[in-house]
């Protein structure tokens, strides 16, 4: 009874404010992830050779060097936590056979010391776990992992360190289904010339951090001629786009990528591509996967989800919550708490520190006329 009486004495503002902020926390940290995942498209397999691929682009685990603000530990924690939650939702939705990480795995990978790199890798592995022992995990480097970000030189030590930690290979093969090629436009390296896909039933998939069709040069043309891709998955742009271009005009055209799954009424549509028809027409298909990290400043973030089923490629984006909106809502609702803390501070310490405390002033003496 005393508790009920005490609650009854609370000001009406706080009776409304406290449940509101509790609901906001529940919504921002749990319900919003469920809400977004319920909107994701389901892609059904038609054949027993169906291959489900989850594409993770530009996670860029934050480091401890570039951001020197006082709140950087909290910022790193919140970014890691958001990535972990959205990644787990994507795994539950897709149950992928292959997970491809398209570079820029760490924000400070190219400049980190060995001790820092070990710490960043532990954080990365804790966020992006391998769901099952049979899931193929593929990692390719980006410019933040090797160099060239801000014209950094690429050192042999950075290349070797990435290979050691992430088991980078020239290619990865799933017999009878697909072969994934590591086309590294950052370091300008290709798989060995004899590393061809000899299985006519298996699809050739290019993985590249930088777009191979945008401002294509001799490197892109050489890769296409040598390994004949059915589809190219790239990253780096932090946005969802697609482009097709005739192979014969690769070096002649300035390829422009079109937005994919970006419009509000088309965000969760499934794009369908006939790979056999594209190959017959000698056309190259490239899909740019958006970043999954809100710290990249992109307003739309998510994961790519591709299903290769025979001659058909189905692709959609698993859009996730934009964390900046959630943090902004916290900032607005915390203002009353700041004001309350200020009042308590003044009440407790106004005698010594509060600038607004009442002061005893000596009245001015009247001026005497001479």
Automatic annotation (TrEMBL):
<dbReference type="GO" id="GO:0016020">
    <property type="term" value="C:membrane"/>
</dbReference>
<dbReference type="InterPro" id="IPR004843">
    <property type="entry name" value="Calcineurin-like_PHP"/>
</dbReference>
<dbReference type="InterPro" id="IPR029052">
    <property type="entry name" value="Metallo-depent_PP-like"/>
</dbReference>
<feature type="domain" description="Calcineurin-like phosphoesterase">
    <location>
        <begin position="51"/>
        <end position="238"/>
    </location>
</feature>
<protein>
    <recommendedName>
        <fullName>Calcineurin-like phosphoesterase domain-containing protein</fullName>
    </recommendedName>
</protein>
<dbReference type="InterPro" id="IPR033308">
    <property type="entry name" value="PGAP5/Cdc1/Ted1"/>
</dbReference>
<keyword id="KW-0812">Transmembrane</keyword>
<keyword id="KW-0472">Membrane</keyword>
<keyword id="KW-1133">Transmembrane helix</keyword>
<feature type="transmembrane region" description="Helical">
    <location>
        <begin position="12"/>
        <end position="32"/>
    </location>
</feature>
<dbReference type="Pfam" id="PF00149">
    <property type="entry name" value="Metallophos"/>
</dbReference>
């Amino acid at each position: 009874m005393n508790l009920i009486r005490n609650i009854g004495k609370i000001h009406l503002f706080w009776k409304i404010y406290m449940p509101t902020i509790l609901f906001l926390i529940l919504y921002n940290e749990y319900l919003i992830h469920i809400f977004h995942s319920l909107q994701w498209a389901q892609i059904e397999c038609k054949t027993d050779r169906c291959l489900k691929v989850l594409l993770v682009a530009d996670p860029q685990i934050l480091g401890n060097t570039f951001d020197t603000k006082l709140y950087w530990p909290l910022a790193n924690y919140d970014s890691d936590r958001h990535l972990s939650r959205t990644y787990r939702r994507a795994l539950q939705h897709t149950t992928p056979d292959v997970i491809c990480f398209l570079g820029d795995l760490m924000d400070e990978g190219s400049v980190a010391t060995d001790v820092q790199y070990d710490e960043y890798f532990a954080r990365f592995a804790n966020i992006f776990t391998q769901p099952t022992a049979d899931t193929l995990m593929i990692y390719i480097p980006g410019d933040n992992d090797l160099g060239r970000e801000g014209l950094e030189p690429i050192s042999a030590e950075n290349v070797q360190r990435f290979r050691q930690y992430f088991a980078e290979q020239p290619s990865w093969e799933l017999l009878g289904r697909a072969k994934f090629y590591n086309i590294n436009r950052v370091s300008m390296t290709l798989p060995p010339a004899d590393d061809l896909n000899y299985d006519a039933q298996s699809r050739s998939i290019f993985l590249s951090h930088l777009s191979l069709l945008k401002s294509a040069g001799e490197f892109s043309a050489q890769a296409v001629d040598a390994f004949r891709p059915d589809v190219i998955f790239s990253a780096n742009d932090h946005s969802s786009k697609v482009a097709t271009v005739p192979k014969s005009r690769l070096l002649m055209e300035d390829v422009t990528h079109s937005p994919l799954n970006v419009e509000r009424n088309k965000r969760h549509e499934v794009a369908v591509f006939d790979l056999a028809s594209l190959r017959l027409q000698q056309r190259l298909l490239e899909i740019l996967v958006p970043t999954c990290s809100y710290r990249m400043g992109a307003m739309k973030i998510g994961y790519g989800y591709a299903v290769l089923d025979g001659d058909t490629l189905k692709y959609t984006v698993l859009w996730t919550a934009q964390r900046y909106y959630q943090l902004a809502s916290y900032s607005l609702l915390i203002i009353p708490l700041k004001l309350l803390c200020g009042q308590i501070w003044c009440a407790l310490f106004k005698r010594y520190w509060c600038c607004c405390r009442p002061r005893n002033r000596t009245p001015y003496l009247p001026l005497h006329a001479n």
